[in-house]
Write a structure and sequence with these properties.
The chain is an alpha/beta fold. Helix content is 37%, strand content 20%. It is elongated, with a radius of gyration of 24 Å.
């Protein structure tokens, strides 16, 4: 008869700590934890364990039970009412900043028509693979896996898709094999269209971060984005004021080409948290164009992004 120690030793090379078993007469009963595995991986692991257990002396029957821990993954939407306010830059730095604070983060570039995360994250030439029709996220130098429409189409190709096709692309990215990620940061397209509605209806995020510049025109549209999430019952984590103040690299004087304090005042009026302001800094632009998000560096330009990530991390802790 095979003892439990022999059974565990046989299971370890195939399943590590995922499988536990016991022997009762000539029957081996094995429980496999398949949390985070896609269908193909589950089937392969089960087959390997079954074959190994069947080869043990004295074992005539192998019974296997698959278990999976309930996913506790949360998603955070980063949105804006209009384009050109730096939403994608905020999304990339927020994802990396949350990862630096202990979250296991994945980044979804849901800006279907204007995907920029591959360049921001330094993986312009990367292409995702698929297993059993499930996309596998691409690793990035920052350690945050990501998926983007920019990885699935030829460079410079126009993505002239109607709403249902764009919604389908979003669904494939959100249903990808995110493995052990406990947090997804969703870089949404600007506005309040089909992609946002699909996400809210099928993959309701646990919270939303709204990005705006200080100027009145941007704030008008930011309020529309806020209204969409409020009506859908999605909590607003807070408002970020981007491009807030330009420090001249030559003389050090500060100017405000887009105004100052508008987003903070709007947050107070709307009764939502103000997460912080990010200066209009040439070093942010240079680092972003080079695929090195500033929050991953030690420069002063990382401070504002890090402070915002800290506030979002605190929000996550409070909602548990």
């Amino acid at each position: 008869m095979t003892d439990p120690v022999s059974l565990d030793a046989m299971l370890a090379p195939f399943a590590g700590t995922r499988a536990t078993g016991r022997i009762e007469g000539d029957r081996a009963s094995i429980v496999i934890d398949v949390s985070g595995l896609d269908e193909g991986e589950r089937d392969s692991l089960e087959a390997s364990v079954r074959a190994a257990a069947s080869d043990l002396p004295g074992v005539a029957t192998v019974r296997i039970a698959l278990t999976s821990q309930r996913s506790t993954r949360l998603s955070i939407a980063v949105a804006s009412g209009k384009g050109g306010v730096g939403k994608s830059t905020v999304s990339a730095n927020l994802a990396i900043g949350l990862a630096a604070r202990g979250r296991r983060v994945g980044l979804v570039d849901a800006d279907i028509y204007g995907p920029s995360q591959p360049k921001l994250m330094g993986v312009e030439d990367a292409k995702p693979t698929a297993r059993n029709k499930v996309l596998q996220p691409v690793d990035t130098p920052s350690g945050v896996p990501m998926l983007s429409m920019g990885m699935l189409v030829a460079p410079d190709q126009a993505i002239a898709w109607r709403g249902p096709m764009a919604a389908g692309a979003l669904q494939q990215m959100l249903d990808a094999n995110w493995g052990e990620a406990d947090t997804l940061v969703l870089d949404l397209p600007p506005g309040t269209g089909d992609v946002q509605l699909t996400m809210i209806q099928k993959y309701r995020p646990q919270g939303a971060v709204i990005v705006s510049t200080p100027q009145d025109l941007a704030l008008i549209d930011a309020k529309r984005a806020i209204d969409l999430f409020v009506k859908a019952g999605v909590p607003i984590i807070g408002l970020v004021e981007n491009m807030a103040g330009y420090v001249c690299p030559s003389c050090g004087d500060v100017s405000d080409p887009f105004g100052s304090g508008g987003a903070e005042a709007a947050a107070a009026t709307l009764g939502i948290p103000f997460l912080g302001r990010i200066p209009l800094d040439m070093r942010v632009r240079i680092a972003s164009d080079a695929g090195r998000p500033p929050v991953a560096a030690d420069g002063s330009e990382a401070v504002a992004f890090g402070a915002i990530a800290e506030r979002v991390a605190d929000w996550i802790k409070e909602r548990r």
